Amino acid sequence: MASAVDSAIQKLATVQLNELSTSSSPNLQKNLSILSPEQIELGKMLLETGQVHLFENWPDPGVDDDDKKALLAQIDLLNSSYPGGLASYIKTARELLADSKAGRNPFDGFTPSVPSGEVLTCGDDNFIQYEESGVKQIQNAAFVLVAGGLGERLGYKGIKVALPMETTTGTCFLQHYIESILSLSQASYKHAQGECQRDVPLVIMTSDDTHGHTLQLLESNSYFGMKPTQVKLLKQEKVACLADNDARLALDPNNKYKIQTKPHGHGDVHALLYSSGLLKEWKDAGLRWVLFFQDTNGLLFKAIPAALGVSATKEYHVNSLAVPRKAKEAIGGITKLTHTDGREMVINVEYNQLDPLLRATGHPDGDVNCETGYSPYPGNINQLILELGPYIDELSKTGGAIKEFINPKYKDSTKTEFKSSTRLECMMQDYPKTLPPSARVGFTVTETWLAYAPVKNNPEDAAKVPKGNPYHSATSGETAIYRANSMILRKASVKVDDPVTQVFNGQEVEVWSRVVWKPKWAVTFSDVKSKVKGNNSVSQKSTLVIKGHNVVIEDLKLDGALIVDSVDEAEVKVGGSVCNNGWTIESVDKDCVELPEEVRIRGFKINKKEQLEEFYGESGNFILKP
Predict the structure, then answer these.
(1) pLDDT level of residue 165 (50, 70, 90 thresholds)
(2) What is this enzyme's catalytic activity, as reactions (predicted)?
(3) Bridge partner list, 570
(4) 275-280 own/partner pairs: CB under 8 Å, 24+ apart
(5) What average pLDDT does range 66-79 have in this prediction?
(6) Rounded to whole angstroms, how far apart are CA atoms 41 and 46?
(7) Strand 543-546 vs strand 514-517: parallel, antiparallel, or unpaired?
C-alpha cells in the first residue's frame, strides 16, 4: 500500500515539475496528458531553446493528437541524428547567424601561406613509384563514397551514381567505382605475398532521396562483383531549417505540425562513420587508411593509387587530392592558415575568399599565378585520404561534428529577415579545421586531365560557362574520359591521333579516340605500360574497348571499332590492322523527349555502325591479328 502511495506522490511531483517547466507554453502544458515522458522532455528542451512558437497553434487534447505526436517524433529524430542534439544545433546557429548579421570575417586573424605537398606528373618515375606504394596499401584501406544527391541538377531524374559514366560501354559510375576497388584490391593482394586477401570495405553515404535507389541498383546488379557484406550504406538525415536570426525552427507553411528540413551537407559522413562503429571495426581488422570520394568523377581512380602512395610515404594524417589551379579560378584552394594566437590549419579556402584574404595580409596582387603558370594554392577536388588511427582519435573528441557555416539569404540590407528559411551546413573537406598543429596535413596534385572531370552541371548552365573554363557537365565528363585514356596510351608510346573539336549542347569539347578499358585490364599506369608493346596506332575516329584481364596490345593499327573481352584465364594478344566503319558520335537535340535523359544531357549518341568484336570464353593462349 505504502509503495503505491509513494508512486502516486512521485507521479504527482513529476507532473507538477513538468507543468512548472512548460508554463511558458499554455498550449503545450494542457496537452501534457497525451504525451509520453520522453516527448515531454523534448517539449521542455524546445521551450528552453526559444522554440515556444512551435506550440502556439496547438488545440486542446483530443484534436490533432496524432499530428502533435508526429511533430515530436520528428523533433526526436532531428535531436538524435545531430551530434550534441538539437539544443547544440540551435546554439551554434544563433552564434553563426549573429556573425553573419554583423558581417564578421571567419578568417580574421589568419595569415595564408602555401602548405607542403607533392606535385605529380603522370607516367614519370616518381609517379610510378608512388603508384606502386599506393597499390600495396589498398589492402589496408576502406573507401567511402559520398552519394546523397539525385541527378536533377544535371537534367537526370535518377540517382547520380546510376548515370552512365560514358556511353561507349554504358558503365555507370557506381559500377566503375566498385570494379576499380576490386581490381586495386586484387593487385594489392599480389604485392602482399603470403597475406590473406582482405575484402576491401566500401561505405556509401546516402540520403532519403537516394537510399532505396542505391540499394536497388546494387542488388539488381549483384553488387557489381562485390560481396554484399563488403558494402555498407549509411543514410544521413536532414537538419532543421531556421526561420530567423533567433534560430527559431521553421514550420512547414502547409503543415503546422512539421519542421522544414534541408540537407546538412556531405560533412555528415564523419559523424555517421563514427556513430556506426565501423571505424573501430576497421582499426581492429588492421586497416590504416580511409579514402573519401565523390559521386560523379569518372577519372578519380586514375589518381588514387599514387595519392595513397604519397600518404604512406610522407605519413600524412590528412591528404587532400588536388589539381593545378589558375589564379582566381572558381575552385577552392588548399591553403595553410596561421592565426595570431598560434593556431594553424591546412584547409580548403573558397576562391572568392582566398583572393581578398591574400590582399588583406600583405599580398597586394592577391591570388596570382607563379612561375609554373598556376596559382601556388592548388585546387581542391573534395577527395580525402585520412590515416585511420589519428582520424579515430580526433572523432572521439568531436563526435564527428564538423565546423559549420550558414548562408542566409536576407530580404534587404538590414539583415533582419530571410527570403526563405536557412540551415547550418558542413563540408567533408573541413575536417582538418579542428586538428592540432601536430597533425601532418598535406596535399597531392595530379594533372586535371588525369584526375578531375566531375559531372555536376546541366546543359543549359554548362553552355553559359565562359570559354576556357571547365563545363563540368555530362558532355565534358564523358569526353574527358576518352581524353585521359588516349593520353595515357600516348605516354605508353602508342600513337594516338590528335582530337577534333566539336560542339554538343552548346559546349565546345575535344573529341579524342573513344578508348575505354575495364579496371581489370589496367588500374595503374604501370599496368598499361606492361600490356602495350611494339608499334601501335589509333586513329581519331576509332573506338577501342578492352574488357579482359590478360589482353596484350602489340603492333596494332586501329582505324575503326575493336572490342575485346575474355575470361581471366584466357591470354589474348591483339595486333594487326583493324579497319572498319567503326562507331561514330552523332549530335542529338537535348530537347528531344523521345531520347533517354542520359543521352540528351550529353548532346550526342554513339552510332554503332561496324566493329570487330571478339570474346574468349575459355582458358588458353589466343592471337587476334586480322
Answers:
(1) very high
(2) a monosaccharide 1-phosphate + UTP + H(+) = a UDP-monosaccharide + diphosphate
(3) 620
(4) 275/399, 275/400, 276/232, 276/234, 278/142, 278/201, 278/203, 278/232, 279/388, 279/391, 279/392, 279/395, 280/392
(5) 97
(6) 9
(7) parallel
